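Query form — protein Ger(X)C family germination protein

QUESTION: What is the three-dimensional structure of this chain?
INPUT:
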Amino acid sequence: MAPWSKLIQRMSAVLLALLCTLLLPGCWNSKDIQNLAYVTAIGIDYKNNQYITYVQVLNFSNVARTENNTIGKPVPTWIGKGEGSTVVDSLDAILATSQLRVFWGHVKTIVITENLMRKGAVEAFYALNRYREIRYRLLVYGTKERLEDIFTKKSLLNLSPLDTIMYSPDPTYDQRSFIKPVYGHQTIARINEPGQPTMVPSLTITKEVWNEDAKRAPLLSISGAYFFNEKVLSGWLSSDDLKGSRWIQKGLSQAFIQVPNKDEAVASLSLYKPKYRIRPVINGSEVRYDIEVRIKGNLSELVQNTSIPKLESMAQDVIKQEIQETYRKGIAAHCDVFNLEETLYRNYPKVWRSQHRTAPSQLSEESLRNITVKVDIRNTGKYKARVD
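ANSWER: The structure tokens for Ger(X)C family germination protein are given below.
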């Protein structure tokens, strides 16, 4: 074969390879990550027959942990606000001026106001969950505060807003277990299930605890929880009102109590890993409930020299009092804090249906019959304690 023929064949092969590359799919519509607006939180309010939505947008180049980041440097937060006759319409108003393409796949939190809860928050949840980029596992909060104030609060040490309770409640819950975080998929499941009250933690702004030098540093905190029954807002209870609900949380890592409860302190205990049982007691048309709690504990502080059995007995009295007080305040606010009627629904559905033909809830202060508590102190720290 002539040399020029081999050259033509080689050139043809190269040309064919180049043509084939034109047929391969490419990332023609891809965007550089620094040119996207990442929405990390959505707030929804309702006023004057209009939905008002807020979005918190972060630049990941500012919040990513790299060697070049300066610890303590303030991280800027951008907040968009839109208004419309529907949730989607109000979000669309934000897109009109976003300047950048908005990405919804990193939304981690939804915050709703009391106005929306009274109007009905279920439709807003459905509207957001219908969008394919938004995930089900979103933290859900309610608030009495202005959403602009909630979304502008910084973290301790000026860390990323992603390190606040609004985004990362687990570290705080692990060291002080009180009100358990609630996720969107849990909220939707409970709202659609008969006999299950739905709890939504409430966010507030605390100004009295921390200072940055001599200047007050307002930070986010959990102030209590809202309760829904049959998709309708039942009421709100403060964190102090909900002390007794801690003892029926399976994920409780650490909760502190003082014994005795109100008199001169004898000791402080750290309690963890509760096991509980709720038992409906049916007598004809009357249904009452027994609560049994078993919990482990450690001795954190001993003010007066007291034996372990005595401390366990006093701790049992404190927990029993807290459960009674929380139940009483829950009934006053029309909230089934301990999910008593859910237990009836799960174990005796026919009885539950007959009970709920006339009213959505049949609970009264007399519905809680017996409370049994057993505390087992496992550790006294580096010091020994009396056992007799």
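ADDITIONAL NOTE: The first strand starts at residue 36 and ends at 47.
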